[in-house]
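Propose amino acids for all 366 sites.
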């Protein structure tokens, strides 16, 4: 592993990634960020658009899996019941959920004034993680304008790291945030793409595992040595600290799946999360949502014409791609993030700043 390879996380698995290496490798998916970086306010909003049309009029099939439910999201109940998305997916901090949900509702009404009158109401979909260590979350800094700005910024050029909703997040006691990845698989003589975007805000240092290497334990032991503290005592103390925080995992695919199959796909995100060392701690909100861009569901239609759906027996390659993409996206978060100082001088160092010799350290384990 040479110095240039430090720029990217190790490639997980043997499946190839897409050309962009982001969730936008799934045709039509775009992402926008609005980042708030002002002293004690270190937060933001991230918006994922499943296609460039109106998601209320052209809904996409979707489903979610709640792996550990310590979260304050909005919209999951209706997704579970109806199996569709009808707004873009929004990510923000815990106390910003209501402001972003109202912004989604207002945007949908602007586009479709009959919503809530002649038509049904709209189901806003907002996910959150608690960035209160770095961000002054009590400032309630996120507003509707920040959702609008993130929505307007959506493109296929997707940034990772300390951006958007990820600005104030922590991961394995280091800087966390937004991560991206994709995988391409062959199924039934056709090629399909699975992309993942994560909002990573979880884990303790000693848990961190990188492509099977217990990097977190290695770093904890190194820190203990540097501080001239007994290695075993230091590691034991770190290991006893409870895992807190959350992760939101958004999985997109162009494979033709229905909501039931997407539920099964979303659950495989947990496999990728576990490989990085998470045990889905008591205080963690670990939620995965999967959607397909293979077709849309017209609003108010009497009948819906579906494309031929993949048989369940052909889903294993997609399950593998989901797990690999989520694991890769979490590592992308760590590799892409920059160090941030926020409220009360709290600081999270990036993996790069914590481990300047990261490439050499990983190479020695191979």
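Proposal:
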């Amino acid at each position: 592993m040479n110095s240039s390879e430090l720029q990217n996380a190790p490639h997980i698995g043997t499946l190839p990634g897409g050309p962009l290496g982001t969730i936008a490798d799934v045709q039509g998916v775009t992402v926008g960020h609005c980042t708030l970086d002002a002293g004690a306010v270190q937060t933001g909003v991230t918006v994922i658009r499943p296609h460039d049309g109106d998601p209320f009029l052209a809904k996409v099939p979707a489903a979610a899996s709640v792996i550990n439910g310590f979260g304050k999201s909005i919209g999951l109940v209706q997704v579970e019941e109806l199996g569709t998305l009808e707004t873009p997916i929004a990510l923000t901090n815990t106390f910003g959920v209501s402001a972003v949900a109202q912004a989604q509702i207002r945007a949908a009404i602007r586009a479709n004034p009959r919503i809530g009158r002649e038509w049904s109401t709209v189901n806003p979909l907002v996910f959150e993680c608690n960035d209160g260590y770095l961000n002054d979350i009590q400032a309630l800094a996120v507003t509707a304008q920040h959702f609008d700005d993130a929505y307007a910024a959506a493109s296929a050029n997707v940034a990772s790291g300390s951006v958007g909703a990820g600005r104030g997040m922590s991961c394995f006691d280091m800087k966390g945030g937004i991560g991206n990845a994709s995988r391409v698989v062959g199924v039934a003589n056709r090629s399909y793409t699975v992309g993942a975007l994560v909002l990573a805000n979880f884990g303790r240092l000693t848990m961190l595992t990188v492509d099977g290497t217990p990097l977190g334990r290695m770093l904890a032991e190194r820190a203990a040595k540097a501080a001239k503290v007994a290695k075993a005592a230091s590691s034991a103390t770190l290991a006893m600290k409870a895992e807190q925080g959350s992760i939101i995992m958004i999985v997109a695919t162009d494979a033709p799946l229905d909501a039931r199959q997407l539920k099964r796909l979303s659950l495989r995100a947990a496999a990728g999360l576990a490989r990085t060392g998470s045990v889905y701690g008591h205080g963690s909100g670990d939620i995965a949502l999967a959607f397909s861009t293979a077709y849309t569901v017209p609003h108010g239609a009497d009948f819906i014409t579906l494309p031929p759906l993949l048989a369940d027996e052909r889903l294993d390659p997609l399950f593998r791609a989901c797990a690999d993409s989520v694991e890769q996206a979490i590592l992308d978060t760590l590799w892409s993030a920059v160090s941030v100082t926020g409220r009360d001088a709290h600081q999270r160092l990036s993996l790069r700043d914590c481990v300047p010799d990261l490439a050499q350290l990983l190479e020695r384990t191979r």
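The chain is about 30% helix and 25% strand. The longest strand covers residues 58-69.
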